[in-house]
């Protein structure tokens, strides 16, 4: 006991080297963090050209060469010590931060766990300063020939903290972390030229370019045309950037960049705002692409939450949440998510037929050459130029055809609807299409007065298990908003007296049990109760694969589908429409 | 098999049977029609295994025999031929030759043995009913049957024969028709059966055919699980739908005390117009019943259309707003014979009962329709 007590009383002030190493644990956990801190410094120094040189995934070397303001001899030495910075001076500055760095600890932390070679030259000077540090101890300060800017090389990271070194991953993995970190900067700072070398190979070279071009350059050409631009400066938070269309989403996170005043941040709440704006148009296990820049008065936000500076605290987070969410959903709604989606009027088909009919007798007279039917249906020839006599009749037909239903709609295997559109064909899965319609209507109905309800001549008596009965009690008010009239009958028995007016005849008996079953299944997914009920209801009362549809029903379905907010994906995230372009068909038939 | 006939006779006979041939079947032989020649009588038979229709016609027989041929091909070629003499012979390879003066056609045939044999079971009793009467009973009810395979008992018309009356009932759970006639009574046997819709449609079609005279009778017999309707030269045999028909009498209200009388055609044409602007799926219209008038209105929320009409009526009770499926109303009005009809109402969520203003002698026709509960 006494022995132990003795040990505990021995309180010592830690050496600066040790505190730096402890602090380094927070700021610098892997080479990528070093790269981030150094890049921030280079950017804060006003560089417009930055070269990054890596060896062995950054474990052996991370070198950043910039053409920024540089430092004089005094500053260069000072910069490597803790709590020294040129970026803020007073406490008030801390609440009004315009630069990326400000804590004044990064370089010192890095210096304590690696060997650093710092070469820097200011514009005024002709000679530069070279500082060599080994594990936080200055080994050498000398004068060297220099060009404007700073070159800092961080070697053998964690060489003196073996515990930390052990936790590093493979070179490849660390390299990927660095790439990931770099992309956060290269996307945003599109006016800065970036070059990256890894193990002496040039990996990328981004020249200064427009924001949108840089974005595609960094993300890859396959995202060309797959992003929607975002712009909203109507509120106190200015939102700009890009969000991906639904086919730009990925199975893994990544491709999600959120910036606040130029700083890459991580914020679960805002991420949720964006993802929830997508709602169900992307499958549940996919992550949408977004690159969003928020600009906000720095006084309304605290970036000094964590040494890594990726977390921020907003003074009005809820408000920003809703603004961001509505901006994203507006952008999604206004964008044509599937390109060129317009229904081809039946008039073209009519022209085609008319063309054949009006010209055929002429051909018979003119010559005996056998005519090629292909010339009438070949799409690149003008067909059926209406002559004056026919034009009147033609315009009438046109009017009529737009008045009545589309004829170029077919059902196959009592499961899919095929229709011709201008750019090719679309295939619609009838079940999920109807599901989407009913789902949105259900959600809408919850907000409204109770809808009409077809009363049943033979009320349906159903006995439920106690569990199902308790679920029913919970969702009963919402079921009534869907058009059900259900009354208790004593015990766990209920009577269904009315059903939604558009419920398919014959579903009355089973629908309630099916909805409850589906509702139970979804309960594990912690859905909102109403969302769950809407999903269960739409899934169970939608027309099924195998139901034959009339032309009217198909047209109705298509009309209603395109009146929904997201006609392309069902509430569970399955696609509703597949689009096959005529180009694609041509390619398949080797017509290109 | 060898016989001669005329195209028209043969074609007419075929028409009586062809309706039973299933359009989609997993048993290919059911797409065939059975031809059996016995002396100068040719019997044509088709079946879908549930229902069997058979008809006889007179031909000039040369040699007895039988075969089955694809009904569709036979029907298609006969339809395209003018009324010319035909000679039909079955060759040794099993092909049926159909010869006209201009040419010949060969149809692949399969032997009678491959065709499901129809054993017409013994009936427990039968009665003779007038053609017209049967025709009317079917016509007034069959439109209201359910097409929902999940409730098979509603997929047919319920025939109830008892000492006092001959009654038919049809319902799909949203509307119901009941027609009873006291002139035809089954004194010998009392029985209730559910006859499938398809069989009734085939009977209706046969009753319309010119070979059935106005005053001819149908012999109607009921067996353990089947019914047979024997007409002049055709019979329709059908299995009955098993199961308990719902206790419909319990749901027919007897305390509907608000009486509304309207002109049938006026109501029908108004409903037809107004329903153009109703929701295309629910066909929901609103009938606002007031003193001596009915306002019929519709509103399609999805497309924004609206329809409104007021017709005069006889009514002096409290005003009611009731929602209906316009198609149900129109179906019912179509099957009412009188110029004026009468609705018995209770409130906006209970069944409405519709009667013709005057019943035919010995007849009692009643229709019932469930409303759509309107928005609160």
| Total number of helices of chain A | 20
Note poorly predicted spans of chain B: none
Domain unit count of chain B:
3
State the oligomer. heterodimer
CATH homologous superfamily heading of the largest domain in chain B: DNA Polymerase III, subunit A, domain 2
Approximate strand percentage of chain B: 35-45%
Question: Shape of chain B from CA axes?
Answer: elongated
* CATH C-level of the largest domain in chain A: Alpha Beta
Q: Average pLDDT value of chain B?
A: 90
What does this entry look like structurally?
- The complex is a heterodimer of chains A (592) and B (376).
- Chain A is 40% helix and 22% strand.
- Chain A is built from 20 helices and 22 strands.
- In chain A, the strands form 5 sheets. Chain A has an 8-stranded mixed sheet, with helices on one face.
- In chain A, strand 3 (115-121) and strand 4 form a beta hairpin.
- The radius of gyration of chain A is 33 Å and the shape is elongated.
- Mean pLDDT of chain A is 76; it is low at 1-7 and 338-404.
- With 376 residues, chain B is an alpha+beta fold.
- In chain B, helix 1 (7-18) crosses helix 2 (71-80), helix 3 packs across helix 4 and helix 5 (264-275) runs antiparallel to helix 6.
- Chain B has an 8-stranded antiparallel sheet with strand order 6-2-3-4-17-16-15-10.
- In chain B, a hairpin with a 2-residue loop joins strand 19 (284-290) and strand 20.
- Chain B has helices at residues 7-18, 71-80, 131-141, 197-208, 264-275, 326-334, and strands at residues 2-6, 32-38, 41-47, 51-58, 60-63, 65-70, 85-90, 95-99, 104-108, 125-130, 156-161, 166-171, 175-181, 191-196, 217-222, 226-230, 234-239, 258-263, 284-290, 293-299, 306-312, 320-325, 340-345, 352-356, 363-369, 372-373.
- Chain B contains 6 helices and 26 strands.
- Chain B folds into 3 domains: 2-114, Roll (DNA Polymerase III, Chain A, domain 2), CATH 3.10.150.10; 125-249, DNA Polymerase III, Chain A, domain 2, CATH 3.10.150.10; 253-369, DNA Polymerase III, Chain A, domain 2, CATH 3.10.150.10.
- The interface between A and B is medium-sized, with 24 and 34 residues.
- Strand 19 (453-463) of chain A pairs antiparallel with strand 26 (372-373) of chain B, so a sheet runs across the interface.
């Amino acid at each position: 006991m006494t022995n132990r007590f003795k040990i505990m009383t021995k309180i010592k002030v830690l050496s600066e080297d040790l505190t730096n190493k402890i602090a380094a644990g927070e700021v610098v956990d892997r080479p990528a963090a070093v790269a981030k801190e150094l890049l921030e410094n280079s950017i804060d120094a006003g560089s417009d050209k930055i070269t990054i040189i890596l060896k062995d995934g950054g474990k052996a070397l991370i070198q950043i060469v910039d053409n920024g303001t540089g430092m004089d001899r005094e500053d260069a030495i000072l910069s490597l010590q803790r709590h020294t910075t040129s970026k803020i001076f007073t406490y008030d500055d801390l609440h009004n931060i315009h630069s990326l760095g400000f804590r004044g600890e990064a370089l010192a932390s890095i210096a304590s766990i690696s060997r650093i070679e710092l070469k820097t030259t200011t514009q005024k000077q002709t000679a530069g300063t070279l500082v060599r540090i080994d594990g936080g101890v200055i080994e050498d300060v000398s004068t060297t020939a220099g060009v404007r800017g700073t070159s800092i090389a961080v070697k053998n990271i964690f060489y003196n903290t073996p515990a930390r070194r052990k936790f590093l991953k493979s070179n490849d993995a660390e390299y990927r972390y660095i790439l990931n970190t770099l992309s956060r900067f290269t996307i945003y700072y599109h006016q800065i030229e970036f070059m990256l070398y890894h193990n002496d190979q040039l990996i990328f070279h981004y020249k200064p370019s427009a924001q949108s071009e840089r974005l595609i350059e960094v993300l890859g050409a396959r995202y060309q045309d797959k992003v929607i631009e975002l712009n909203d400066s109507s509120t106190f938070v200015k939102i700009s950037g890009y969000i991906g269309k639904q086919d730009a989403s990925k199975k893994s996170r990544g491709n999600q960049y959120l910036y606040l005043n130029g700083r890459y941040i991580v914020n679960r709440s805002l991420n949720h705002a964006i993802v929830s704006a997508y709602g169900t148009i992307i499958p549940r296990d996919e992550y949408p692409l977004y690159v969003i820049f928020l600009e906000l008065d720095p006084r309304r936000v605290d970036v000094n939450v964590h040494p890594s500076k990726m977390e921020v605290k907003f003074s009005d987070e809820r408000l920003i949440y809703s603004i961001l969410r509505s901006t994203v959903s507006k952008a999604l709604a206004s964008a044509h998510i599937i390109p060129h989606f317009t229904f081809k009027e039946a008039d073209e088909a009519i022209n085609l037929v008319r063309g054949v009919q009006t010209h055929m007798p002429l051909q018979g007279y003119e010559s005996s050459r056998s005519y090629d039917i292909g010339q009438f249906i070949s799409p690149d020839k003008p067909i059926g130029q209406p002559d004056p006599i026919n034009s009147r009749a033609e315009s009438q037909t046109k009017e009529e055809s737009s008045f009545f239903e589309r004829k170029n709609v077919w059902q196959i295997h009592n499961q899919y609807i095929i229709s011709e559109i201008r750019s090719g064909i679309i295939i619609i899965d009838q079940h999920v299409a109807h599901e989407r319609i009913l789902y949105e209507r259900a959600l809408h109905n919850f907000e409204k007065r109770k809808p009409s309800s077809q009363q049943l001549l033979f009320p349906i008596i159903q006995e439920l298990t106690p569990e199902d009965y308790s679920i029913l009690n919970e969702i009963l008010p919402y079921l009534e908003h869907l058009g059900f009239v259900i009354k208790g009958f004593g015990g766990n028995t209920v009577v269904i007296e009315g059903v939604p007016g558009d419920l398919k005849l014959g579903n009355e008996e089973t629908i309630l049990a099916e909805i409850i079953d589906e509702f139970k299944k979804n309960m594990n997914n912690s859905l909102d109760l109403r969302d769950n009920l809407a999903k269960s209801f739409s899934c169970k009362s939608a027309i099924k694969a195998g139901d034959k549809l009339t032309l009217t029903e198909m047209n109705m379905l298509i009309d209603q589908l395109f009146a929904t907010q997201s006609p392309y994906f069902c509430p569970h995230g399955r696609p509703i429409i597949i689009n096959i372009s005529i180009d694609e068909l041509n390619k398949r038939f080797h017509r290109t | 098999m060898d016989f001669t006939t005329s195209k028209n006779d043969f074609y007419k006979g075929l028409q009586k049977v062809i309706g039973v041939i299933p359009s989609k079947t997993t048993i290919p032989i059911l797409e065939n029609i059975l031809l059996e020649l016995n002396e100068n009588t040719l019997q044509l038979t088709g079946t879908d295994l549930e229902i069997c229709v058979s008809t006889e016609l007179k031909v000039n027989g040369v040699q007895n025999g039988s075969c089955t041929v694809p009904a569709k091909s036979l029907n298609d070629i006969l339809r395209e031929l003018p009324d010319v003499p035909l000679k039909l012979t079955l060759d040794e390879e099993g092909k049926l030759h159909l010869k006209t003066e201009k040419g010949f056609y060969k149809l692949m045939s399969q032997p009678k043995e491959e065709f499901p044999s129809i054993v017409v079971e013994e009936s427990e009793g039968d009665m003779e009913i007038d053609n017209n009467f049967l025709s009317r009973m079917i016509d007034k009810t069959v439109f209201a049957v359910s097409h929902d395979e999940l409730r098979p008992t509603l997929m047919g018309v319920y025939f109830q024969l008892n000492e006092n009356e001959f009654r038919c009932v049809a319902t799909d759970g949203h509307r119901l028709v009941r027609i009873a006639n006291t002139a035809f009574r089954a004194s010998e046997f009392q029985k209730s059966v559910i006859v499938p819709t398809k069989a009734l449609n085939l009977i209706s079609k046969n009753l319309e055919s010119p070979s059935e005279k106005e005053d001819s009778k149908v012999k109607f017999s009921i067996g353990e699980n089947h019914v047979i309707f024997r007409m002049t030269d055709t019979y329709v045999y059908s299995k009955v739908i098993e199961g308990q028909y719902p206790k419909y009498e319990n749901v027919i209200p007897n305390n509907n005390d608000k009486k509304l009388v309207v002109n049938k055609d006026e109501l029908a044409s108004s409903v037809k117009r107004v329903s153009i602007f109703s929701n295309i799926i629910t066909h929901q219209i609103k009938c606002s019943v007031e003193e001596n008038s009915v306002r019929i209105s519709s509103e399609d929320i999805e497309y924004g259309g609206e329809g409104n009409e007021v017709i005069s009526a006889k009514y002096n009770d409290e005003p009611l707003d009731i929602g209906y499926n316009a198609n149900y109303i129109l179906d019912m009005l179509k099957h009412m014979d009188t110029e004026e009809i009468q609705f018995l109402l209770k409130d906006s969520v209970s069944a409405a009962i519709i009667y013709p203003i005057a019943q035919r002698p010995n007849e009692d026709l009643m229709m019932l329709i469930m409303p759509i509960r309107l928005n609160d």
